[in-house]
Design goal:
With about 120 residues, the chain is of the alpha+beta class. It has one domain. Strands 3-2-1-4 form a 4-stranded antiparallel beta sheet.
Amino acid sequence: MQLNDIKENFNLVNSVDWDMTPEEAIALHLEWGPLRSQAYYNSRDNENETVYFVINTWKNPPILTLVRRKGFDSEELGDFRLPRNLETEFMKGIGQYRGVYAVEGKVREWLKKELAV
């Protein structure tokens, strides 16, 4: 899957939760912690589905991944490279640490522009 494939899939684009973080997805689907607010979700059950982007810096180069999580299941819908300038700036901004990060700031702005959101 490429970013253009996502852009053309209006249902998928509209299902992206731009505020979801990897930590919050785990809290929601695996019930390991607090959410941004209990009122945000009606229930924590296997029917909840969340679609969100993350940046995985365990890989070199860092990879932008679209994730669909439902209950205990997680599916990577696509992996993408960031533009080099964003990749460099992002890595510098996190101190070169490895991990899985939420999509925020300039990366989110670029991604929304690419997907025409």
